[in-house]
Design goal:
alpha+beta
């Protein structure tokens, strides 16, 4: 399966559209569609292509490192061929006569280097697009069907057990997103959580919590750590009184 096919299938499994991925990652939807078709010409070069692949893969729950290795392996031959084509035979070296230095040209080169350094600093981080999405309200994430295998039920309360609010604590080791839905499927709120951040919530009523990239989080419900959440988007059914 190609890089584009892998990302497209992971996005569909997560229940996300191209438009929603674009809003979360701040990558243009035309670039995302091109990547899913294995067309990286709109990325602006190998550096940005790797960054886009990593951002999209983290959001949809795919293995970013493996996909970048596949990209490097597929494009290494192209880069070597291009370098061989443009090298050409070496021209005879001609030593110019001694002349006074052109200070105007030197100043222009220095200013150009400073500007290039500012641009690289502003655009160099592959995760810049993902983290920027935290300041923009994304489109609602669709709720899977009630009989979807993605829904995971959390054990209900035993008879006679006092009903108490549900305390959910989440620590993110990778970027992820969370959406909370009412029992009728209405979206109550959603949030983007960057790596190294922690969040906690208390629910006094029954809700469904949908989590993107569950493999990059540590989730605790009422003091019990949830395990085996998988790597694809997952939905947890939470209700007061459960253990």
């Amino acid at each position: 399966m190609s890089i584009g096919d892998t990302l497209a299938r992971a996005r569909q499994d997560a229940g996300l559209s191209v438009t929603q991925v674009s809003q979360w990652t701040r990558i243009r939807d035309t670039v995302i569609r091109g990547i899913e078709n294995d067309d990286f010409s709109r990325c602006g070069g190998d550096f940005y292509a790797r960054g886009h692949i990593r951002s999209v893969a983290r959001l949809v729950g795919a293995d970013a490192d493996l996909l970048i290795q596949e990209y490097d392996a597929a494009h290494e031959g192209i880069r070597q061929a291009s370098a061989a084509e443009i090298s050409g035979p070496a021209a005879p070296l001609k030593l110019p006569g001694r002349r006074r230095p052109n200070w105007g040209a030197v100043m222009a080169l220095v200013i150009g280097a400073v500007i290039a350094g500012v641009v690289v600093h502003a655009c160099g981080s592959p995760s810049h697009h993902v983290n920027g999405a935290a300041h923009h309200k994304p489109a609602p994430v669709p709720v899977p069907a009630r009989d979807s295998p993605a829904r995971r039920a959390v054990p209900a309360a035993t008879p006679g057990q006092p009903r108490r609010p549900v305390l959910v604590q989440l620590a993110a080791t990778e970027d992820c997103w969370v959406g909370v839905y009412a029992p009728d499927g209405t979206l109550k709120w959603q949030a983007y959580i960057p790596a190294a951040a922690a969040r906690s919530w208390v629910f006094a009523h029954r809700v469904s919590m949908r989590i993107g990239n569950p493999g990059g989080i540590v989730l605790t419900v009422n003091g019990h750590q949830m395990t085996s959440l998988g790597s694809q988007a997952v939905t947890l059914n939470l209700q007061p009184g459960q253990r």
